[in-house]
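User: structure tokens for this one?
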Amino acid sequence: MKRTLTVCPYCGTGCMFYLVSDNGRLIGVEASSTHPVSRGGLCVKGWNAFAFVHHPDRLTTPLIRKNGTLQAATWDEALELVVERLAQVQQRHGRDALMFASSAKATNEENYLLMKLARAVFQTNNIDHCARLCHSSTVTGLAETFGSGAMTNAISCIDETDVIFVIGSNTTEQHPLIGSRIMNAVRSGTRLLVADNRRIRLARHADLHLRHRNGSDVPLLCGMMQVIIAEGLADREFIATRTENYEALAESVAPWTPERSAAETGLEAADIIAAARLYAGAKRAMIFYSMGITQHSHGVDNVRCIASLAMLTGNIGRPGTGVNPLRGQNNVQGGCDMGALPDLYSGYQKVSEPLHRQRFAAAWGVPALPDTPGLPLTRAMDAASDGKLFAMFIMGENPLLSDPDQHHARKALENLELLVVQDIFLTETAALAHIVLPAACYAEKEGTFTNTERRVQRVRKAVEPPGEARSDQDIICAIAQRAGYDGMTYADASEVMDEIATLTPHYGGISYERLDPHGIPWPCPTPDHPGTPILHQQRFTRGQGHFSPVSHRLPQEQPDADYPLVLTTGRTYFHWHTGTMTRRTHLLDREEPGSFLELHPDDATRLSIRHRERLLVISRRGSIQTEARVTSMVIPGVVFMPFHFAEGAANRLTNNVLDPESSIPEFKVCAVRLEKLP
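Assistant:
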């Protein structure tokens, strides 16, 4: 048997384990006892991360749609057709008629290469990835306030903090090893504040649990800041020496008395005061948040408030402090770092800046690069739906399930003249494609992932890909070569990382030789730099931290007489994202085999709905069938659904309205009604 050290392909925690193989087939997983994040532990998904790799549904040959059906083809046929059809679309409609969707499940090297393919070969900045759907609010909000849109502290800081504030994150289910670390800290005396209207597992261990209304995070956070300022709990020295625009913030939160905040959030004023005192009274306090904060039409404002709360109390730049957005997918941080964004090259260098364009053009051997930022992925779907975008190349994503308003997503994809999907399974999106390219999964290739704490780690090949499947790197480079570009020829993935390091300042000191055994957190600007576990220690990336006042905006869709309940969505412990991998893992699918909807006993009584009864859930965009779970996990008036299940797709219901700054959809609030099925 062979043991291969690699990184878990699921959430952004970045646990490492050994894939155990026998005669070329994976047979199990062994946790790494020395890894600083997982420390010998794994969640149930990690322990089963080998099980989907050899599933019979794996794509093994290229497919081309002929006479309405996908039929097997050779690689030569498929690659030639991809290049030919992409060129034809550009000739008819212009270079920005194309959209490239990169993947938070692909390696850093592959995300960088797809970004390079879009910009250097096809001369468009229309490239984005699923960070648009989860943490684009973070990138926008923290870049403005701190100068960097990443998690500020190491996961190990949990062991050093006095107070942990978790808001909009079901951490034990979404990031289980981080959740268990928080629980261990609480057992050792750390105090815990949880703001989430679901009674998540962490809430059962909290000193204070705030069950505020969906979409009322700004009133809650502004109310806490008003108390901190009014009671003299702010860190005046930190504010004076490390920040700017404090007076504007103080003026903006002054009207948010505990009473006003309570009226908007549905909380008691005394609880808002207690939360403010608990957080501000700590010598060291950490904030953790996830998509319960970001996935709103005012998601950037939510992030601004969190950043302001941390700066107001001096809880930034030290061990045991910080603002810590938890990344949802295994390499969503790396996808952002690598420039799989419409306005940024790798290292968050703006495409609108002439010096950056010149530097990348010279390195890539092209005369010039496009200077206008491209379309965010959500805006691209709107453009396709409206007949204004004509081709999409989608690598390792499944927008037909992950995008809001499934009817809108289907219309967008079906409107395209050309849809190319590169993936490991025939996903719901791939089933609509004109060309499907079979890719290798994480266990079948070399590369790196960057976890939520910015730790760059090696991914290692344990087994061969099935059939004719190829790594994303090999496919992307082959497309570039057939398009007439000779600047994407590499001996292996390490050469791609070497190129990344020359163009990306905070990866400047990263090389494969330095990443053994457990990686390096960026910024790592030089080959002798040890990496940076904690950001903003002496100064913020932007210089002074910037307080950004906000105004409260309600969610775009409110309950009414026709749709009286608020639907919110999220994940479960046993499944992940669109279920492409976990639902092909027997143990995981057995534990959570289908869609369900949580509703409060008061609502169940009023609507005469029994536990496990079949329901029709209806929004203004569509309807789905699911099973009722009557539980006090949710508050009256709110229902919850996971979005993993194609046969009960929650995103058939969700609202496609976008945050105007980050273009993130409002997944967390939409209005629905329930009907009993006969």
